[in-house]
Amino acid sequence: MNLIDLCAYYKLEAPIEFCEASEKEVKEIFNGAGPDYLPDWSRWILSFFLRLFMAAFVVHDWEYEYSDKTRRGFQKSNKRLLKNMLKILNIEYPLRDWWAYPLRIFWRGKAFLAYEACREYGFSAWLND
User: Fold this and answer.
1) How confident is the model at residue 53 (pLDDT cuts 50, 70, 90)?
2) Which end of the chain is more exposed for a tag (fewer CB within 10 A), N or C?
3) Where are the domains of the chain?
4) Do 108 and 89 touch, CB atoms closer than 8 A?
5) Rounded-to-integer distance, Cα 105 and Cα 81, Å
6) At a CB cut-off of 8 Å and minimum separation 6, what does 110 contact?
7) Taking Cα atoms as reference points, which of 114, 121, 111, 26 lies closest to residue 65?
């Protein structure tokens, strides 16, 4: 499944421009989990660690690439990331599947760690051209 189809499958929130983009445009922007300044090997590790949420990071990378450079836009993008990660979590590990609660808790913790890392350390990446 390509990146755009994956986002559609999970019914993720995304800016209108993302929804109108081609797969090629999205692939050119998406670099996995983590900021551009990290070496490829560390982004690979982060991407593996957060692999369940890659579709959410596709939208998040798009928003950072076309950042409006405002604190409000930054906060909105990070909140959308968390919301999208929780959507994915609810599809992959729904509450009705009580036997999957340990995995649900495991991935939920990772989602909040990723959100907090972006919220705390991502503003400089948000401002970069």
Assistant:
1) very high
2) C
3) 3-127
4) yes
5) 18
6) 49, 50, 52, 53
7) 26
